Amino acid sequence: MPCFRCGARQTDPVRGASPWKRGVRHETQVLICPDCQRSGDLDLDTCHSCGSTSLICRLGEVECRSCGAVRLATGRHGTCSAPPRPTGAPGLSEEVAAALDRVLGRTPRR
This protein's superkingdom (predicted)? Predict the structure, then answer.
């Protein structure tokens, strides 16, 4: 899953914890790359109980990792579904095809 904001793809991390963060935006689980985390204006959903943005979305529920509060996803924006790709961001299949073209010396596909 790419960063919801810039479309960057997560790479294999060096040993230790990943610098990428999870969040919930419009009741959709999203990943946030380290660069976008620094921007601060991510517009993530917040917990109705404690105001934290440390939320996870699963099976139609949104759970706060800070206080443990659980609520049903309302379904207004989609019920804990995969996020849409950022506009103009290529999908994984397009990225793989482009990488193969580069490695094999083929003419880029159109």
Answer: Bacteria
Give the number of other Cβ atoms within 10 Å of residue 4's Cβ: 23
Backbone angles phi, psi at 94, to 5 degrees: -70, -40
Could you tell me how far CA 57 lies from the centroid of its own chain?
11
pTM of the model: 0.62
Distance between alpha carbon 7 and the CA centroid of its chain, in Å?
9
* Containing structural domain, residue 34: 21-83
Is the residue at 96 inside a domain?
A: no
pLDDT in tens, 31-63: 999 999 998 788 899 999 999 999 998 888 999
Residue with tokens 């969040």: 23
Query: Is position 10 within any domain?
Result: no
Residue 14 lies in a domain: no
How many helices, marked H, and strands, marked E, lie in the chain?
A: 2, 5
